[in-house]
Amino acid sequence: MQHTDLASFAAALPGGRQLTGFERLAGGSKKGVYRLMLDDASSVVLYAWSAAENYWTDNSTDPRDPFAEASGLDLLEAASLALAEAGARAPALLLIDRSQSIYPADIAIVEDLRGGTLEAMISSDAGAAAAPLRTVGAMLNGMAKYRGPRLGKVAAAVAGSAPQDRNAEQIVLDQGLAHLVSVATKVPELGQARERIEGALRERHARVRSRDWYSLIHGELGADHVMLDSDGRPVIIDIEGVMFFDAEWEHEFTRMRFGRSYEALGIDVELDPERMALYELARSLSLVEGPLRILETDFPDRDFMRGIVTWHTGKVLRLTGTAT
């Protein structure tokens, strides 16, 4: 986009604004993400879901699959509303437009968060991170207690547009088995242990008792998905994939990503250890399969992705008693 293209977005904001500058932000592979600098010395962030801004060649998704790729204004808006109702803060929606009168695509303008990530604060000043960690924990507690009408991405679950014939643990088992088939042909250690790993997945699944309710979860909430505002208050970002699912799926990942800081969250949620065990193994398989797919592209930081594959390969082998 050019300056002339972006000026109309600033003018559309409540009260009208003049655009004084802009920059494209990293992380928008399915939509354009731009910081707009305004004439009152403030700034906002623009999302534009334009085909020209989507760099993925395969955009087919099954709306019944809660793990399908998530992108779109409907998902963002529904997730933002549900998070607010659960007591969790996401970037404020300042303007949404589906009319394509401002730009030939769905757009949203959201608050700009300039305080850095919680992950960076934990690394640089653990003492200062204590208060936002407690706030994030309170958000997660509220989200776990917030019940959804059915399983799936929030927009689909609320609209009833993606009926499910599987429960959460079956979806995770199916995904884990599919990932095992994929990685067994690419990672010799996993290929040699394939039967043992498959048996461990099925055994863990068999121990899970059925459940007929679901919590609101982010799905990939690490400290890198928490930004701080100018007052140091935490805000959950990357919310298009927010769904109704098991809180255990959230906390297995959050516990791993927050590491020693997880206890500082003050989580007050009853988590089923059998679900946690199944989800831990399935998640590590996904963290082998996903990076391996990325390594088939021209992704630049290849050593980083290989490191994830190596670490989670070792974890899968340890979890299933097949490590040498």
**DSSP strand tally:** 10
Order of helices and strands: HEEEHEEHHEHHHHEEEEHHH
Instruction: Just name the CATH architecture of the largest domain.
Output: Alpha-Beta Complex
Biggest sheet: strands, sense, closure?
5 strands, antiparallel
Reported by name, the CATH topology of the largest domain is Aminoglycoside 3'-phosphotransferase, Chain: A, domain 2
The CATH superfamily name of the largest domain is: Aminoglycoside phosphotransferase (APH), C-terminal lobe
**Uncertain residue segments:** none
Helix content estimate: 40-55%
- CATH class division of the largest domain: Alpha Beta
Distance between the termini: 53 Å
Percent of sequence in beta strands: 5-15%
- Report the C-alpha radius of gyration, rounded: 21 Å
Structural class: alpha+beta
Number of domains: 2
Please state the overall shape, judged from the principal axes of the Cα atoms: globular
Give the overall pLDDT as a whole number. Answer: 90
SS summary, helix count:
11
Widest beta sheet: strand line-up: 1-2-3-5-4
Protein name: Aminoglycoside phosphotransferase domain-containing protein
Pfam families: APH
InterPro entries: Aminoglycoside_PTrfase (IPR002575), Kinase-like_dom_sf (IPR011009)
